[in-house]
Amino acid sequence: MVITNLDNQYKNFKKIAKSYLNSEQWSIVEKAYNFANNAHGNQTRLTGDKFITHPLETATYLAELHLDYNTLAAGLLHDVIEDCDVTLPDLIHLFGEEISSLVQGVTKLTEVENVSEIRWEENVQTHSILEAQTLRKMLMTVAEDIRVVLIKLSDRLHNMETIDPLPQDRKIKLSKETMEIYAPLAHRLGMWDFKWRLEDLAFRNLDPTMYKRVAMLVNSKRTNRDEYILKAINLLKDKLEKVDIVAEVKGRSKHLFSIYRKILLYEKENKTIDEIYDLFAIRVIVQNVKDCYISLGEIHNIWPPLTGEFDDYIARPKDNMYRSIHTSVRGDNNYPIEIQIRTTEMDEYAEHGVAAHWKYKEGSVDDDTFDKKMIWLRQLLDWQREVPGDQEFIDSFKTDIFNDQVYVFTPKGEVKELPIGSTPLDFAYRIHTDIGHSCIGAKVNEKLVTLNKQLNNGDIVDIVTSPSEKGPNLDWLNSDLKYVITSSAKEKIRLWFRKSKKVENIKRGKSLVNKNISKLGLDISLESLVENTKYASGDDLLNDIGNGSITITDLVKNISLKDTKTEQITQNEFVDNITDSINVLGVGDLLTRLAKCCTPIKGTEIIGYITRNRGVTVHDKKCTNILSEKEIDRFISVSWGLNETLYSVRIYVEAIDRVGLLKDITSLLSDERINISGSMTENIDENSYITLNIYVKSMSQLNSVFTKIENIKSVLNVKRLN
Ligand code: MN
Fold first, then answer.
1. pLDDT tens for residues 351-396?
2. Domains defined along the chain, listed by start
3. Residues 6+ apart with CB under 8 A from 371
4. Which sign, positive or negative, has the C-alpha torsion 70, 75, 79, 85?
């Protein structure tokens, strides 16, 4: 364990702080340090360091962001009320109102955390509720004084950096909280640097094996990548020099957690890590806005731009003040390169977000513009008022606010920010609950679209409403159809149905159950359906189906296909070269393939080998290639996973015939990774009758596939044949 050298640490802090504070301001910071040092006395941390090293490091991060002297002082004092014999009046007396109220803000947040900690130990279930309270509290604090949150984030960053000596359960708890609350908060404040650091630290503790694995995968590709990027950088530097542009051109490091997320995403699309080309990234930092655009021209001269991969956040900055030009170009060997172009000041904002405000306060950004750019913060608080309970709040927080956003326009040119994947219906509900309820159609960029069309950045959305009282459609809550993805819209729709009359809900529920049960080929009475659920009576069940509280997919979850006379088959029979059924270090389905040299069969002892560019290859432990391999660093332990049982089911689709119909159906099935073993089409007049033999895992999967097929254009009906 390395014990921090307090003298050096303090000297470093002093040097950074004095580089931008005047001597009067510094003397107050110094006074705060001496006071805190004294108050914490001989307290130590589990790392073995004196306690004062913690507030000192917290304040150092704040000084690196050039925050004002009050914030630095408060950073140094942030734990004295909590941990020492010091009261708020003491602080006010010695340091005045401003510093004291910052310290008090941080102390309040810590208290919320402590409550959540006790409850965490008592009952894990209550955790997310308390998390929501923490979030609420944080938001209120942001509204009061954002500097409190900056101190808290610095505090958390240092705590995460010194987490090693803590007991395992505390590590997990702190890391989860960091991942779920603090990193997203840093994200929303545009503080990328903090966000990445927090995420990687939390990732390392939450999933150490995966963390190491991603690090290894990245390193094994690093040399090639570094050479490639270096070549591109040098070429670009030369070109810019020739047109007299002073620029810093550098390769941009991607963080392990973001690479991990990318791997997961690519895996869903069945791509391997070699296809993750956007690991190639370059940043160009120039002196002024004009040079940004000149550089862009030069870049597009060297390499052709990829269509649809261009964003000008200089002309249209993001709400969190982010400004930059993004482009992707086709580099040598056709690898896409992601390039960001920005000025030094923009770069500062991009890395440090709101915190950069202090650094550039005397420069071009005045407090007024700053306030205007904090619109999102007010929106955030508006949503907070809209959503009733704590649980809903945390849901909406996670999906609506922390995810990546698309920016779309009302016909009047007003910008609305929605999570990626949002639809015109989400947009309608965002404008007003009544607009959502009476929505009957939508135009995107003046074209009529379906209500579940995914919106893109820059779309102009015009909602068509019904003049009469209409109310939402139950299908809107069916997650298979993706009509709404924001939890605020879902909640509003649910609320409408909950308020509608019970008899109507029961009626709606009954017709839904009747329709779907026969389609699924089930011969089952309402009574036996009720037995499978927590419901007391048929009417209660139908009521909840009719008001959207539960879906048919939920209802059939517990009914096994096994009981319904089908042929069983194990997935293993489909597995050939690429396989799903191997766990790598306990993580399923990850970029594995069976080695051709020894083609291990299930049950034999196996070992994984990290290849240079094809993910992990699984070999028989006794394979001669393995026995002769010298680079033992590249071995990784793997185990056979569990096979899923599949059931063979015959389905029947009735549709109006059109070109591409069968292809639409089969590609939907293949997207769902459902195998088809046979198909037959019969055309009578204008109609098409398609019989398909498919393999499914469960009744709910079958039901959700039915819903999706029914949603394909010109499909009239789908059912199961027994
Ligand atoms: Mn602290």
1. 776 666 665 554 444 444 444 445 545 555 454 444 445 555 445 5
2. 6-206 (1.10.3210.10), 209-365 (3.30.460.10), 376-497 (3.10.20.30), 500-559 (no CATH), 582-640 (no CATH), 645-721 (3.30.70.260)
3. none
4. negative
CA distances from 554 to 269, 507, 513, 537, 550 (A): 26, 19, 12, 17, 6
161 Cα: distance to centroid of ligand 1 (angstroms): 12
d(CA 626, CA 620): 8
Is there a contact between 103 and 80 (Cβ–Cβ < 8 Å)? yes
- pTM here is 0.53
Ligand 1 centroid, distance to 357 Cα (angstroms): 24
Q: Are 158 and 58 in contact (CB under 8 A)?
A: yes
Distance 49 CA to ligand 1 centre (A): 14
Tokens of 626: 């393995």
Non-local CB neighbours of 307 within 8 Å, separated by 6+ positions? none
Q: What are phi and psi of 393, to 5 degrees?
A: -60, -45
Q: Which two tokens stand for residue 215?
A: 């690090």
* Residue 168 φ/ψ, nearest 5 degrees: -55, -45
CA–centroid distance, residue 178 to ligand 1 (Å): 14
Taking the C-alpha atoms of residue 135 and residue 401, their distance in angstroms, rounded to an integer, is 12
Catalytic residues: 82-83
Burial of 403 (0-12, 13-18, 19+ CB in 10 A): middle
- pLDDT bucket at 422, cuts 50 / 70 / 90: very high
b (16+ CB within 10 A) / e for 647-681: bbbbbebebebeeebbebbbeebeeeebbeeebee
Instruction: Give the total residue count for the chain.
Output: 722
Q: How far apart are CA 449 and CA 425, in angstroms?
A: 11
Q: What is the dihedral of CA 474, 479, 480, 485, to 10 degrees?
A: 110
3-state helix, strand, coil in the chain (%, to 5): 55, 15, 30
CB 266 within 8 Å of CB 276:
yes
Distance 128 CA to ligand 1 centre (A): 22
Contact in structure between 214 and 206 (CB atoms under 8 Å):
no
Tokens standing for residue 583: 């766990």
- Among 153, 199, 193, smallest CA distance to 352 is for 193
Q: Check if the beta carbon of residue 295 is closer than 8 Å to that of residue 341.
A: yes
Question: From the CA of 158, how far away is ligand 1's center (Å)?
Answer: 8
pLDDT digit string (tens) for 53-68?
999 999 999 999 888 8
- Cα(470) to ligand 1 centroid in Å equals 54
What's the 3-state SS for 230-270?
HHHHHHHHHHHHHCCCCEEEEECCCCHHHHHHHHHHHHHCC
* Residues bordering ligand 1, an ion, CB closer than 5 Å: 79, 155
Burial of 478 per CB tally in 10 Å (0-12, 13-18, 19+): buried
For 619-642, how does the pLDDT look when each residue is reduced to its tens digit (9 = 90+)? 888 888 877 777 777 777 777 665
For residue 381, report the distance from its CA to the centre of ligand 1, in Å: 27
